[in-house]
Specification:
- Residues 23-250 form the AB hydrolase-1 domain.
- This is Alpha/beta fold hydrolase.
- It holds the Pfam family Abhydrolase_1.
- GO terms for molecular function: hydrolase activity.
- By secondary structure, the chain is an alpha/beta fold.
- The protein has a single domain, classed as Alpha/Beta hydrolase fold, catalytic domain (Rossmann fold, 3-Layer(aba) Sandwich), CATH 3.40.50.1820.
- Helix content is 47%, strand content 16%.
- It has twelve helices and nine strands.
- It has helices at residues 38-46, 71-85, 97-108, 128-144, 147-157, 160-165, 167-179, 182-192, 199-203, 222-231, 247-250, 252-263; strands at 4-6, 9-11, 13-16, 23-27, 50-54, 90-95, 113-119, 209-214, 236-240.
- The strands form two sheets. It has a seven-stranded mixed beta sheet, with helices on both faces.
- The longest helix is centred in the middle third of the chain and has 17 residues, at 128-144.
- It is globular.
- The two termini are 26 Å apart.
Length: 267
């Protein structure tokens, strides 16, 4: 654990692998923490890459900011963390909300992004219905805590057949969700409800891009990933069979193989 203060928040993070390795910044989604990336961290460091995996503010061991945290706030935090570590640019990867934060980093700090890895995420701005849903969910989490919500959505976070077929993975994901501070989760939900449209940002990206999606993701289906791919014609699209919204956790070998193949020419 390596806590540091960035923009008024204490961020806890892992920085592992050789200092001379290709830097890879991994951004978890909601409502998780950096340990979601444990299988990727192990594979990447074994291949000689440097992995930086932070807990976003409000998640994991990082400090909580109440009220509302915009995706822009998360992106600026991560740019500050790269500054702290002396990393000029990195391969920036994120899953779900983390993918949207990666796009926000591309928007606000394009010089820090050597390449993008976008897993199970979407680019359009939130819809009016989505804004209402996220704000209502934020209210609920503050009133009730995380447990009920976590158990309701586990079979959407993972493919339903993996909840029963991979109990260890399901339990690990559930534990992460239940351990999240509801104040941090609510603040992120309110900020995410106001996210901008990233389609124009993606259309202008010239850096390498890897798009990954679980074949049975119900939150951001394969069609959503194909839409991203059409925005970035030079991108590589990988569909991970046997996985839902979190293919890096459900099918780490398949996810890691695609990731390592993508990173190889960048070294």
């Amino acid at each position: 654990m390596n806590p540091t203060t960035v923009r008024g928040a204490t961020l806890d993070y892992d920085d592992v692998g050789p200092d001379t390795g290709l830097p890879v910044l991994l951004i978890h989604g909601h409502p998780f923490n950096r340990t979601l990336w444990a299988p990727q961290t192990a594979a990447l460091t074994a291949a000689g890459h440097r992995v930086v995996a932070p807990d976003l503010r409000g998640y994991g061991r990082s400090s909580v900011t109440t009220g509302k945290v915009l995706l822009a706030d998360f992106a600026d935090d991560l740019a500050g963390l790269l500054d702290h570590l002396g990393i000029e640019d990195a391969v920036v990867g994120g899953v779900s909300m983390g993918g949207q934060i990666a796009m926000e980093l591309q928007l606000r700090h394009p010089d820090r992004v050597r390449a993008l890895v976008l897993s199970d995420t979407s680019a359009p701005a939130e819809t009016p219905e989505g804004k209402e849903f996220r704000n209502r969910l934020a209210d609920r989490l503050l009133a009730e805590g995380m447990d009920g919500y976590a158990h309701e959505v586990i079979d959407k976070m993972l493919a339903a057949y993996n909840v029963t077929g991979m109990p260890d993975v399901a339990n690990r994901v559930l534990e992460m969700m239940c351990a999240t501070d509801p104040r941090g989760a609510a603040a992120a939900l309110r900020g995410r409800a106001e996210r901008p449209d990233y389609r124009e940002v993606l259309a202008s990206v010239t850096a390498p891009v890897l798009i990954v999606v679980g074949a049975d993701d119900v939150y951001t289906p394969v069609a959503e990933a194909e839409s991203l791919h059409r925005m970035v014609p030079h991108a590589t699209l990988t569909v991970v069979e046997g996985a839902g919204h979190l293919p890096g956790a459900e099918r780490p070998d398949r996810f890691n193989a695609a990731l390592l193949e993508f990173l190889a020419p960048l070294v």
